[in-house]
Amino acid sequence: MPEKIKVGIVGVSGYTGRELLRILKYHPNVQIFEVFGSQSRGVFLSNLHPMLNLKFDLEVKDFFSESHNADVYFVCVPHGKAQDVVSLLYREGKRVIDLSADYRLKEASVYENTYGVKHNHKDLLQVAVYGMPEIFKANIRNAAIVANPGCLARATLLSLYPLLDSGLIKNKDCVVVDAKTGVSGAGMSLRDDLHFPHMNENLKPYAPLHHRHVPEIIQEISNFAGFSINLMFVPHLVAIDRGILVSTYFTTSEEISNEKLFEIYSNFYSDSPFVKVIYRNLPEIKNVRATNYVQIGFETSNNSGVVFVALDNLTSGASANAVHNMNIMFDFKETSGLEEMSPLYP
Ligand SMILES: NC(=O)c1ccc[n+]([C@@H]2O[C@H](COP(=O)([O-])OP(=O)(O)OC[C@H]3O[C@@H](n4cnc5c(N)ncnc54)[C@H](OP(=O)(O)O)[C@@H]3O)[C@@H](O)[C@H]2O)c1
After folding, report:
1. Which of 287, 289, 282, 274 is nearest to 240 (CA)?
2. 175: Cβ below 6 Å to ligand 1?
3. 76 alpha carbon to ligand 1 midpoint, in Å?
4. pLDDT on residue 190
5. Whose CA is nearest to atom 3 of ligand 1?
6. Which atom of ligand 1 is nearest the CA belonging to 85?
7. Which residues are identified as catalytic?
8. Can you tell me which atom of ligand 1 is nearest the CA of 36?
C-alpha cells in the first residue's frame, strides 16, 4: 500500500462532504485527489469552503462525465442519488464508502417502501458491508462497498448491542428509544420547517415510531442477536447545529445496577477506541461535539435501566465514522486522523 492513498469525495459541497475535508486535511495517509458535485460543478474548493483554509485547491467536477482516478470514494449525496454513483464506482473496481441509506438495507423491497425510491442495483445490496466498526471490523477490512450507518441508527445500536449480547433484553422485549438530534442532520438543503425563526428555541418530535432508520435498526438487531425486539423509536429535532443524544429505556427480569451495566458495556467496547463508557457522569452532546468519540452512560432503578448515548451526527454519525471505516479498509492505524479531535468547549 502506498504511503498516501488518493481519495475522491462525491457531494463535497454538502455538510458531510465538507466535514470530510475538515477531517482528511490532517490525515497522514490521505491525499484528497478529486471532488464531485452537482450544482457546485466548476467551483473551486477555495471558494466553496474558504473557512477550511486548505493548502491545495481542486475544482468540483461532474461525476458521471469525468473519469475516476482515486483509490477510494466517499459518497455524500442524498439517498436515491447515491445508488448509481456507488454502482458505477464498484464496477470500475473502486472501493466505496457510501454515507447515504442506499446500501444499508439488505432487502430491496424494504428500501423501496422506506425511502419511496426504486433500487436499480439490487445485486449490490449483499456486497455492501454495514459500516459499524465496533461490530464488523473484519468484514469492513475487505469490503468493496461500505454502507455507513445512519446517524440515529448508529447511536441507537451502540446503546443496544451490549444489552442484546448480555441477554438483558431478549426476543420481543419492548425497548423505548427517545432520540434528540441537531438540525444539520437534515443536510443543507432549504426547508420551511428548518428556517431559523421556526427552529430557533424549538424542540419537536418528528416521524415518531415511523422514522426511516427504524428498518435499519431492526435489521441490524436481528443480524446481531438473531431475534427482534418491539422497538418504540421517537426522534426529536432540537435547536442545535449538531449532535445526537439517545436515551434507551428498558426493563429486565432481574435487578440491575449501574456497576453491572458499566462492567457489561466496558467489556463489550474494550476493543473500540472511540466508544467511551462513563460511570460517574452522564453523556452530553457538548462532550463529543465535532469528534468521532461516543459517550455512553446509564442510570438504573430496581429492574429498570436507561442507557444514554451522545455522539455528533456529522462526525461519529457520518464523516468521521466513514474515515474510521477507511482506516480499517486500508490497514491504517485504526485511529489515524481521528484520535486527536477534541470537542469545542464551551
Ligand atoms: N447530515 C447528517 O448528519 C448525515 C448523517 C449521516 C448520513 N447522512 C447522509 O449523507 C448524505 C449527505 O448528507 P449531507 O447532510 O451532507 O447532505 P447535503 O448537505 O444536503 O449535501 C448533499 C450533497 O449532495 C450533492 N449532490 C446532490 N445530487 C448530486 C448528484 N447527482 N451528483 C453529485 N453530487 C450531488 C450536493 O452537491 P451540489 O451542492 O453540488 O448540488 C451536495 O454536496 C445523505 O445521503 C445523508 O442522508 C447525513
Report:
1. 289
2. no
3. 5
4. 87
5. 185
6. 32
7. 151
8. 33
The reported pTM is 0.97
State if residue 188 touches ligand 1 by the CB under 6 angstroms criterion: yes
**Which pLDDT does position 157 carry in this prediction?**
98
Cell numbers linked to 1: 500500500
Structural domains in the chain (count):
2
Cα gap 98→321, rounded to integer Å = 11
Q: How confident is the model at residue 1 (pLDDT cuts 50, 70, 90)?
A: low
Q: Is 149 in the pocket of ligand 1 (CB under 6 A)?
A: no
In CATH, what number is assigned to the domain containing residue 94? 3.40.50.720
Burial class (CB in 10 A: 0-12, 13-18, 19+), 259: exposed
Res 2: pLDDT: 60
Is residue 344 in a domain?
no
Please tell me what DSSP assigns to residue 63: T
Q: Is 243 in the pocket of ligand 1 (CB under 6 A)?
A: no
pLDDT digits (tens, 9 = 90+) for 157-209: 999 999 999 999 999 999 999 999 999 999 998 889 899 999 999 999 999 99
